[in-house]
Amino acid sequence: MSHHPPTSRPKPTAAGNEEASAILNLGEFENVQPLTLSETALIINALTSKRRNERKNQNDTEILSKTIEYLDAFSRFKKKENIEAVERLIDAHSQFHPFEKKQLGSLCCETAEEAKTLIPSIQDKISDEDLQELLDEMYKLMPR
């Protein structure tokens, strides 16, 4: 009995099954290093600034312009030093998945209850008191 090599590629996992609820199911994004909105803004602004300096007549695409506009509106931390400080605060909590850490850094919840409602997978990973302490430390780094 001879076996022939397969004539087609294996079927990829269907996209769209990702879920960030009480249990994280990030699918193909499981091992991707996420970024906060503030980190993303820092990177995109640095790259576009470099491009503009290198190519004097560089026009941004509409999508890039809208992305920058969105990040400017929703990134909570603007200064590089504050972005790095928030990163250190959150990274000290090894019980969190990288996705959860970035959600905490992007959402900047006011209360532990709000954080656990918006990021249900952290529910049993940290006490309300410890989470509130983390959120309060992050709040101190936000621009006023």
From TrEMBL:
Alphabetical list of Gene3D superfamilies matching this protein: 1.20.1250.40
Primary location group: nucleus
Matching SUPFAM superfamilies: HRDC-like
GO terms for cellular component: nucleus; RNA polymerase complex
Molecular function in Gene Ontology: nucleotide binding
Keyword Nucleus applies: yes
Record-annotated membrane-spanning stretches: none
Keywords assigned: Nucleus
GO biological process terms held by the UniProt record: DNA-templated transcription initiation
PANTHER family: DNA-DIRECTED RNA POLYMERASE II (PTHR21297)
Signal peptide: none
Domain RNA polymerase Rpb4/RPC9 core: 27-144
UniProt-recorded name of the protein: RNA polymerase B
UniProt record similarity statement: Belongs to the eukaryotic RPB4 RNA polymerase subunit family.
InterPro entries for the chain: HRDC-like_sf, RNA_pol_Rpb4/RPC9_core, Rpb4-like, Rpb4/RPC9, Rpb4/RPC9_sf
Source organism superkingdom: Eukaryota
UniProt subcellular location: Nucleus
